[in-house]
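Q: For a teaching session next week I want to show students how multiple molecules come together into a single three-dimensional assembly. I've collected the sequence lines for a complex. Could you give me the predicted structure tokens for the whole thing so I can convert them for display?
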Amino acid sequence: MIEGARVFDLEQPRAEGMPVHPAHQQAGYSYLLHRRHEDEYRPDESGPRTGAAGIIVCAEHTGTHIDALCHQSDALTLYGGVSVDSSVQTPRGFKRHGVEEIPPILAPGVLLDVAASKGLDEIEAGYPVTAEDLEACCERQEVSVEPGDVALVRTGNARQWEDPERYLAGPGVAASASYWLAERGVIAVGADNMAWDVPGLRDPELGCLMPGHLILLARYGIYIVENLALEELAAAGAHRFDFVCTPLKLVGATGSPVRPVAVVSSR
Amino acid sequence: MIEGARVFDLEQPRAEGMPVHPAHQQAGYSYLLHRRHEDEYRPDESGPRTGAAGIIVCAEHTGTHIDALCHQSDALTLYGGVSVDSSVQTPRGFKRHGVEEIPPILAPGVLLDVAASKGLDEIEAGYPVTAEDLEACCERQEVSVEPGDVALVRTGNARQWEDPERYLAGPGVAASASYWLAERGVIAVGADNMAWDVPGLRDPELGCLMPGHLILLARYGIYIVENLALEELAAAGAHRFDFVCTPLKLVGATGSPVRPVAVVSSR
Amino acid sequence: MIEGARVFDLEQPRAEGMPVHPAHQQAGYSYLLHRRHEDEYRPDESGPRTGAAGIIVCAEHTGTHIDALCHQSDALTLYGGVSVDSSVQTPRGFKRHGVEEIPPILAPGVLLDVAASKGLDEIEAGYPVTAEDLEACCERQEVSVEPGDVALVRTGNARQWEDPERYLAGPGVAASASYWLAERGVIAVGADNMAWDVPGLRDPELGCLMPGHLILLARYGIYIVENLALEELAAAGAHRFDFVCTPLKLVGATGSPVRPVAVVSSR
Amino acid sequence: MIEGARVFDLEQPRAEGMPVHPAHQQAGYSYLLHRRHEDEYRPDESGPRTGAAGIIVCAEHTGTHIDALCHQSDALTLYGGVSVDSSVQTPRGFKRHGVEEIPPILAPGVLLDVAASKGLDEIEAGYPVTAEDLEACCERQEVSVEPGDVALVRTGNARQWEDPERYLAGPGVAASASYWLAERGVIAVGADNMAWDVPGLRDPELGCLMPGHLILLARYGIYIVENLALEELAAAGAHRFDFVCTPLKLVGATGSPVRPVAVVSSR
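A: Of course. Below is the structure for the complete assembly, covering every listed component.
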């Protein structure tokens, strides 16, 4: 894995002011440093060593993160027919399909650079990437999506990370593309936007916003990774890699912040 | 990396009531679910999809985590001669040596199973693992610690995770062992206890508690991973592996929760 | 109100380590200072003024606080026949009977010093103060409880504030006493213990723990103030006073931290 | 105090989305309900009673609040010559002049309705209320500001509470008016804007922003109450009243949320 491999960091930096989905803005993201080095510096009594520390307050769906299966329901039923009742849903999280149930993900990864396959730096805000777009992208890249893969869809939206309003308004993935990926047996998907799906776009057939969340998490049991930083990986033209993502075992949580990496072997 | 490899999960589960170091108990660790599926279930208007979400409040040094270099100072100087002043230390964290500066760690890992090398299930509370103990362990395991390695020290203390009081009182690593590892050029170390060093033990020479923190973080620039779950890895007798750990880029933070894994290739 | 009146502060100090009810220990209470004066001290650019600030993380039922009517239900119905459904109970609190609906309380207050009437400094842990105890106390004090009053029951437990374990195990008020007060038409009650009722005591008739919470909040619409500091007021022998308590309008919250005062006019 | 008195509530409601000063937006204000009634509803085992509860995460300077003396320094010296050093300023707040040192405030209150005295509903954004404005207002109202008073300045800005951007940009109090009030010996002041002073206005003489904070808190030891709801009180033409404000004893904190009231006796 290691010798001579190139590692691409797919996490956006976490800081106050980063884009946050309206549904998670209440808690938002804060890091506050309260213990400082000088507080405990008493060289005569306790030597030269000092420590500093802070606290994190955040919604689990801020920054680059993965959605657990309990994050979404299909008519109040979780993936695998688990009913949402008080034995499953508690004040401290879920007893089934919590993010701690996601194993460490080390799987073959494929980048579907849809922006590039359309000859664009980035796809315009609001555009829904369709199954046809993914097909065309695979042809152009001469790759196929295989069972067990983690499929990452690049729209170029990551370039807008510093402009939260524009970033949030970005493009997304249409229901047809979520179905297309699910049918190919991927174990997880990811994209360089806030919520995989197209912001504010209701799917006519399913009658809901964010159809991909319903299809992938609640119906197929496929994880979604959001807010990926895919520019560097795309620039390197790496379409195949080892995808590594280790969600924190936040017991009962509906997701976890993550720092996924793509490992491209030199061979 | 992936085909036929065995992946060991080295993270302890994160839940209220887990052991927390006294210095970080104020914020502690909480996960609170506030958005529930039934809240937005209006099938006629918005289809069958619903979402649930919560918030995390925690000290960055709770659970299995990595210490950033800014976490410790040597007479108010960080690693590399960086003075702790207001240009470096701010209310929102550090401008230098914050955890976001730690690259994704994919490195050769070595398990030093000191408990096993002493013929014990676990080392008694308060015992300081010395350089001699590490030497003896390497001999018995027929491994050596090489530059660029990540060295994990097993005391067996992870077995006490469910008993916070006992876990916190566990054994640790003596200054001599921290020096020994630093001199071998490791890039990171880790152990199955709360704070690497022996709880409450002042180093006579350095005159401080937690000498390993001073030596490794502030003087050698070596990261420390704490609260590792090493029992399964040890039971498998895996002494050499690929160590993968991807700290979250919490800008300015003095550490990050992590879920490290050990990848043991079948070859 | 003011000239020559004596004001008694009935709030316990709020600090980490204070007694917290097991049901509210997850979030607990923390105050963390992150902005410090030196951070923005640049006299040449911005003059001599600097500011410091922090954050509060707490359960609304920590420290001296008042319970809102939405805090308790009677078979999933709030006071006044309000059903607990998603139109009333939301992720951000309650749309009915939230603490913001409590008007500022300025009302005649009466101290029922049950400990003193029993000739004790404090009543033993676990003792349930009965209707008979309140009757006897009123007789001994030559006071009566009138409609519109706020009735404060003193057990002496406030003396144990510094010993959280003992404080939490303190005495409480029996269902008979809650009924007795409710029937007299008080608008609010309070006591010097964690939860008004006797810790862990199930009421045989109602079949629940904390019967006073059911009786007072859910059935009679009477507020409960908890963790009052009553020692100084009792020492002054003040049995009648103006009770002033202004709950914060935390929209939707089930309670609020408060600093009640008793104003004893000199006349 | 009570019979026949009219009580005016001077607190703005606390809810997500309320105006928050840029300096305190990181933690902001959140209330999250996590325990819900149905969670513990098991009538057969535990009777009809259920409880619900949530948590509060906020900066202490959000909503209607009072500033403690430790909130501001004059060249790193607090009121009364207290130097800001590590014996006074700690990760958990201040050991001197913390908000817990503010006694319950029950004092004569005076409303200076500057907007009305100028014949306006509200004073325009950015306007600095001067000493002359206060003089003119006192004359017009036929009131004087006396030692021991709490002086509330009305600009009409409270009408903009629902429009955070406009509210934050509101008018304020000039340094000359802060001096004028300080010299009259008031114990506290308050206004219907975010930060007493004029947003973004540097005082030429003191060379700093928010000169009133320096003058009142750090130099005269006079508390400042911010974000007051003064419309109803002004509409009633009440210029003299009993002002009641009981800051929470948040040990070490630089301020406290409060719900002040004005009590207007019928006599």
